[in-house]
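Good day; I would like, with your permission, to put a structural problem before you. A protein sequence and the structure tokens that stand for its backbone fold form the material at issue. The record follows directly beneath this note:
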Amino acid sequence: MELLLTRKTFTEKSTIGELTIDGKFFCYTLEDTDRGLTQSDSIVTIKLKKIFGVTAIPTGIYRVIMDMSARFKKIMPLIVDVKGFAGVRIHAGNYPTDTEGCILCGMGYAPDKLINSKDAITQLYALLNSAYSNGELITLTIK
């Protein structure tokens, strides 16, 4: 399964994007502020530019697994091997204050806000759980 997150709208508080699954539009996303980090940046560069809790993860290609979140106490998507970040998940939320580097999903958006996040997450988790339990590789490209 191929997830593609294309960042579209950039503000001082958030980054709004579009998520496609296998080439088909699925939902909108909200992340923290994009500070221009890329997966190819050195860890030193990432640490210099990153502001903890308010920085979007670097653009690049990542593997996604489904595993138990100690924080949320349920099985959730985990974005693996994000340089300079730990515990990056895809989850429900509506505002930049609902994320610390994670990706939030919603069915609609307004400036610095997602709408119907729980609906998007319920549908996304069903697709991801099915793919993961069938042994399918899940990748996330962020550009």
In short: Strands lie at 2-10, 15-21, 24-31, 60-69, 74-80, 90-91, 103-106, 108-110, 113-115, 139-142. The two ends are 17 Å apart (CA to CA). The CA atoms of residues 6 and 143 lie 5 Å apart. The longest strand covers residues 60-69.
